[in-house]
Design a protein that fits this description.
about 25% helix; about 350 residues; alpha+beta
């Protein structure tokens, strides 16, 4: 559907370097990266707003690298909506059709149909400066869809929307995708990828580091940067060897029992915070059970986060019920346990 081959672009002191990416028809692909990683620049190259220095862009098998913007079957929704405040909702949606000199009756039908699809028919006569952020985003999406693109490019679509309205926009985007529309959505928000994406990519300093489905990427990150994006907070530099017939990873302070596998001689051990169980007593028979002291605790979205010191420092997530049942507090001694399956070496 969309294929990028060896795309590079120098832009001031920044450069996209050898970007290769394939997105299938009907796929919802999310490209994650921090500000300045190159996400928006890549979208602008795909849309035709900028030209790559090297490489090729293919859409449905056709090379569109040098195609004019108007002839590319791509539609872009900008972070700041880029809608006209002095025009009505109807006129904003109709704008690209007027440029194409569409007949008035066809244009009227197309705009009304699209407004109904994104649930803004009741706003068609309103000026866009009177709308909420979520309503403006719907107008921007409708204006893009009315041109019948093959793929929609979304530049941080939630960034300018208040938190209570984001679920509404997510539902809209998901519904558009389930109707068969291919989506390329760039964001810095990990939770958007988890909720929306069929596949994800991580971009950093102009390089795509890893792609795949969210489960495989976030459970098996290729490096520390990807792991941090997945919310992983526990990293330990380790040496790996065998002891009593088992593979062992040893940090500066502690040994960890690993699953049977082929490992390098050293690497970075990662443990997801929600893979660690907390007990008040030692769990005999567990491969990895560690005694430590709670040094800090904070409320988290779905419970509490603990920081536990046991030579190595651990970030642990516990549910509200678990927190209350264990009567956890700072200074308390606890035992942390995690399975060998939850340990990753990168």
């Amino acid at each position: 559907m969309l294929e990028l081959k060896n795309i590079s672009k120098n832009y001031g002191n920044f450069a996209l370097k050898d970007i290769n990416l394939s997105i299938s028809k009907g796929e919802y692909f999310i490209l994650l990266g921090r500000s300045g990683a190159g996400k928006s620049l890549l979208l602008e190259i795909i849309a035709g707003l900028r030209s790559p220095d090297t490489g090729s862009i293919y859409l449905n098998g056709s090379d569109i690298t040098k195609e004019k913007i108007q002839r590319r079957k791509t539609g872009m929704v900008f972070q700041d909506y880029a809608i006209f405040p002095h025009l009505t909702v109807f006129d904003n949606i109709a704008y690209p059709l007027r440029i194409k000199h569409m007949q008035r009756d066809r244009m009227y039908y197309a705009v009304n149909e699209m407004a109904e699809n994104v649930n803004i028919s009741h706003l068609l006569n309103r000026k866009t400066n009177e709308l909420s952020g979520g309503e403006k985003q719907r107008v921007a999406v409708a204006r893009t869809l009315v041109t019948s693109p093959e793929i929609i490019l979304l530049d941080e679509p939630m960034a300018s929307i208040d938190a209570p309205l984001r679920d509404d926009v997510r539902s809209l985007l998901r519904r558009i995708n389930t109707m068969g529309m291919t989506m390329l959505h760039v964001t810095h928000d990990y939770s958007e990828a988890v909720r929306l994406a069929d596949n994800v990519g991580l971009i950093h300093n102009g390089h795509i580091l890893q792609t795949g489905d969210p489960d495989s990427v976030f459970s098996r990150p290729v490096n520390k940067f990807v792991a941090r994006f997945a919310g992983i907070r526990n990293f330990y530099r380790v040496k790996i060897y065998r002891e009593k017939g088992k593979p062992v990873a040893e940090s500066a302070n502690r040994k960890y029992i690993l699953n049977e596998a082929d490992y390098p001689e050293d690497g970075l051990l990662i443990i997801k915070s929600d893979s660690i169980s907390v007990y008040l007593g030692e769990q005999k028979g567990m491969d990895n059970c560690i005694k430590g002291i709670i040094t800090e605790l904070n409320r988290a979205e779905n419970g509490y986060e603990l920081f536990v010191d046991s030579g190595d420092r651990y970030h642990v997530l516990v549910s509200k019920n678990g927190f209350e049942q264990l009567s956890l507090n700072t200074g308390k001694t606890v035992f942390l346990s995690f399975s060998t399956d939850s340990l990753r070496i990168i």
